[in-house]
Specification:
Number of strands of chain A: 15
Pathway (chains A, B): Cofactor biosynthesis; thiamine diphosphate biosynthesis
Distance between the termini of chain A: 67 Å
CATH architecture of one domain in chain A: Alpha-Beta Barrel
Cofactor (chains A, B): [4Fe-4S] cluster
Pfam family, one (chains A, B): ThiC-associated
Family (chains A, B): Belongs to the ThiC family.
CATH superfamily of one domain in chain A: Radical SAM ThiC family, central domain
Strand order of the largest sheet of chain A: 8-9-10-11-12-13-14-15
Largest interface: A-B, 140 and 140 residues
Strand content of chain A: 5-15%
Oligomer: homodimer
Number of helices of chain A: 22
Function (chains A, B): Catalyzes the synthesis of the hydroxymethylpyrimidine phosphate (HMP-P) moiety of thiamine from aminoimidazole ribotide (AIR) in a radical S-adenosyl-L-methionine (SAM)-dependent reaction.
Chain lengths: 609, 609
């Protein structure tokens, strides 16, 4: 099934449906040839230096004939000219770029085992499989670096090479490719792009670029299915998620991940420790470096672009959490702490970190060095345990860089507003300006069911001060597994935080979006307001709740104040009555004021003179 | 109809229903005598220096036998021992205090005219009425200061008097009464309490106190009714609104306001200009000082506690808005600008400000000096027009203080994060630290339908930096009139912002709430988490969506991670396995670590030594 007609990335088999419905409403019912010029928005591409380098954008066409170009994370699903099919996966956009470099090779790869999907060794469903069996859409072998070749974007950047991936993100961010290369080379930005994930549209994470948003998906032992996870992924990227972390912990982890990867236009992150723990039946003390390493390779071969590694949770730091109000709240952190205490040994992740670097470098998997000791409550923010781990992450960051492994650093968590800045300042200092990737932080603990908001506040602030990527929090945080609506609410809330930060950082072009919407608002171009909104569907729905009639879409007021009290209308009336064009209005106003002043009423402030 | 049985402030006549339902769920179905000790929360009172001085609190009883005391704005409606009836109004709590001072007198008052309710002079329904006819519940005459008496809380504070109102808020805020008196006397705080609104439970607005939240209600010409507005008011205070502004602009303004006032446990604010404009059929240029003054007296006699007055919108500032992207977005501001330009005269509010001060002082109405030229878009933030008006507000603030009129200053609006601090810093400097009362600010314009969030971010920040009260924004902002759910979402979002600011300011006792909830979370006391939450209903509902069974309420995990991956559970297991009591755990952990260090692995960070 294709999305040619309905313009919705639908496959009846995987139950992905309707995610683009509302957004496309403005152009629905029109013939293809009319589409490009219709009001609303459509997918467009900005061409690069080669024919296969086309950067997707969201082009919003306004009723006044102007158009606004916005960053687009929705992938090929919103391109009506492309056939997408979740059983086949997305086209491997980067394949030629990877092949052309000639520094990687295909190899048979690690066989897929039943236990990779959480199936017991004794299960009748047992037996070895290959990747094709997991995802029949595109037969492939995994790819790795040829001996001695450094295949990470960091290595290329350090050598002075501007890869197609770098050019792609430069066009996306509207900066020079050299800026992208420099930031990556300096370790201030990462471009997560596993050689086994050619489907992604490259993106960059760094403080000089647009603030990014990650959405977590993942089934747990309690609920959820493969289909739901793939749908959640496309749903999240549809609303603006820049990366997606698959945090599945239940059955079918391997297969779920494969389907997610083959259909994802954005980088996918994971926490390999979760799957490793499944392989030892949830007994932390039975984890071994070998099992962990094997899991990392398994996931790297699938194409995971970045991995959270809790190598900073070291044995001596565990006692530092004893006085905490909420102990260790990171799943990975608590697993590693339990392992360290059970064996009374230093963390196997810390001890084998260099070998891990070698593995990640082989595939260009990016590190997301996990903050396993992040605070889980306002009371525990910025404590000894948290900052001790951060100093270790700084040490590990330097080791990773020796292996040309791209690295970002994860941050908290739960932090009251006055303690947020210390987090980013210290992280930037200790970690040589490596990108900070924070969860929230939540600025208070008293509002379960609203933690997208308690954390959106902290997220906006820490992003303004330099955090490069924000991990979203949904309304279900602390209470349950997010559903479709929760994912959307989480993504939209975090897009707000990210964009508010882009504005505050003075990111070039960020304010154009606000300005376009403000102009539409002042001029009562309701359809333009909706189409420019982060969530056009809900904006339109809210407006129509009180003023549903079609004429209201062009009315010079809304139901908030009614026609008589609309300040925007009165403002316009003032302009209309006291002048014609903008220049005339101004001249007229200034003239009137001068007359007033000349009449003896010297009431002007100095700034008006 | 009373609320004795259902514990919901219901009147079938006014259709107020169910607002307390969910919150009381925990104690529903229990007999009254069990109630006081039951899990959940109940209304309690903290006694003062006299029997009629009892400060309401929300007492949350936890399953571990402890209890937490929270600030309570819900009024007598949540007291099951009181009969409330919206046709009768709330008991006049402050009446004896006002009478005892002996500085006010009853008088016949201004007759109520049909046009006060927006009814044309020629209407067959016309004819003069008195206040009794408008609200039959409690026959009364309005009250005003006796000749020459200064009856404002500011005047009392300056004279060194600690009024019962001041003692009430001192108990509420857990500070010494002298601190309250000092802050009011210095003009750094206001205690809005019209002598004609004896029903309120006094509250204070100032940066040394808890950050307050205002909720706007009000019918517009397009929709809404008296019943809905009264219900919205009690609904808003139920969820934590500290004051309510009645911004009605349609029919029945006078009567709606009377019903709201007689049933409101919190101070009520208004914008008299809106009603004045109704009286001249919406024609701004026909407004006169006389009509405005008459409206102010009308509302003051009813008991309005604070009034927004746009006296800072002066003729010479109007041209400063000509280059703006969104002109003048304040309704009051645009009305006054239109008047100034139409007559080419200085604002009648500015010109007659001293006489207005005399009127407000007569009833102890507090000024909320409106920011009629606040920015309506990111592009217009912190511009000349805005700050020119702010300087005038500083001037007016000093005049008001000469008349002993309590005064707060309104602030924006739409401001990107990096320009927020300048607003509060400048306001505090220019306005002699008078309380700042801001709308948001919205930190981006691109998310209509989510402006409670775009503005909640800015609100939390500006409150941290010193704003004393936040005017809420609902999801319907810019799109339509808020309904019941929107009001709740707006209030909860702003309670989050206010509390996050209280935490960041280090307000004494603020963190106890977070700590209690964090403890409950770490100890898997689910019911306690719900009952301590800002919105217990939604927290419980979200949890039950995925794990509805009763045992899940005591389960040591939730559906987010499932039993195997619950970090809190692992954390607890660690503590249990490696020690007994908290002290033993710590000792054990430290001992283990010391052994580790002694073994030659000197891995400790300096801070751990």
């Amino acid at each position: 099934m294709t999305n040619k007609d309905a313009r919705t990335p639908v496959s009846s088999q995987t139950n992905i449906s309707n995610q683009a419905n509302g957004v496309f409403a403005a152009s629905q019912g029109k013939k293809p040839e009319e589409e490009q010029k219709s009001i609303g928005w459509h997918k467009a591409y900005v061409g690069g230096s080669r024919p296969d380098l086309r950067v997707p954008v969201r082009q919003v066409h306004l009723t006044n004939g102007q158009s606004v170009t916005l960053y687009d994370t929705s992938g090929p699903y919103t391109d009506p000219s492309l056939d997408t099919d979740v059983r086949r996966g997305l086209p491997p956009l980067r394949e030629n770029w990877i092949l052309a470099r000639g520094d990687t090779e295909e190899y048979p790869g690690r066989p897929v085992r039943p236990e990779d999907d959480g199936i017991k060794h004794t299960s009748p469903r047992g037996g070895l499989r290959n990747l094709d069996a997991v995802f029949p859409g595109r037969p492939r072998q995994p790819r790795r670096s040829r001996d001695g070749k450094a295949v990470t974007q960091l290595a290329y950047a350090r050598r002075g090479e501007i890869t197609p991936e770098m050019e792609f993100v430069a066009l996306r961010e509207n900066v020079l490719p050299e800026v992208v290369r420099e930031e990556i080379a300096a370790g201030r930005a990462v471009l997560p792009a596993n050689v086994n994930h050619p489907e992604i549209e490259p993106m960059i994470i760094g403080k000089r670029f647009l603030v990014k948003v990650n959405a977590n998906i993942g089934n747990s032992a309690v609920t959820s299915s493969i289909e739901e996870e793939v749908e959640k992924m496309t749903w999240a990227t549809h609303w603006g998620a820049d990366t997606v972390m698959d945090l599945s912990t239940g059955r079918n982890i391997h297969t779920t991940r494969e389907w997610v990867l083959r259909n994802s236009p954005v980088p996918i992150g994971t926490v390999p420790l979760y799957q490793a723990l499944e392989k030892v039946d949830g007994k932390a003390e039975e984890l071994t470096w070998e099992i962990y390493k094997d899991t990392v390779i398994e996931q790297a071969e699938q194409g995971v672009d970045y991995m959270t590694v809790h190598a900073g949770v070291r044995l001596p730091y565990v006692p530092l959490t004893a006085n905490r109000k909420t102990g260790i709240v990171s799943r990975g952190g608590s697993i590693m702490a339990a392992w360290c205490l059970a064996h009374h040994k230093e963390s196997f992740l810390y001890e084998n970190f260099e070998e891990l670097c070698e593995i990640l470098a082989t595939y260009d998997v990016t590190y997301s060095l996990g903050d396993g000791l992040r605070p889980g409550s306002i009371a525990d923010a910025n404590d000894e345990a948290q900052f001790a781990e951060l100093r270790t992450l700084g040490e590990l960051n330097r080791i990773a860089k020796r292996f040309h492994v791209q690295t970002m650093i994860e941050g908290p968590g739960h932090v009251p507003m006055h303690k947020i800045k210390e987090n980013i300042d210290l992280q930037q200092e200790i970690c040589d300006e490596a990108p900070f990737y924070t969860l929230g932080p939540l600025t208070t603990d008293v509002a379960p069911a609203y933690d997208h908001i308690t954390s959106g506040i902290g997220a906006a602030m820490i992003a303004w001060w330099g955090t490069a990527m924000l991990c979203y929090v949904t309304p279900k945080e602390h209470l349950g597994l997010p559903h479709r609506d929760d994912v959307k609410t989480g993504v939209i809330t975090y897009k707000i935080a990210a964009h508010a930060a882009d504005l505050a950082k003075g990111h070039p072009g960020a304010q154009e979006w606000d300005d376009a919407l403000s102009d539409a608002r002042f001029e009562f171009r309701w359809e333009d307001q909706f189409n420019l909104a982060l969530d056009p569907d809900t904006a339109r729905e809210f407006h129509d709740e009180t003023l549903p009639a079609e004429p209201a879409k062009t009315a010079h007021f809304c139901s908030m104040c009614g026609p008589k009290f609309c300040s925007m209308k009165i403002s316009q009336d003032i302009r209309r009555e006291h002048g014609g064009s903008q220049a005339e209005i101004e001249a007229g106003m200034v003239q009137k004021s001068k007359e007033f002043a000349a009449s003896g009423n010297r009431v002007y402030l100095p700034i008006a003179d």
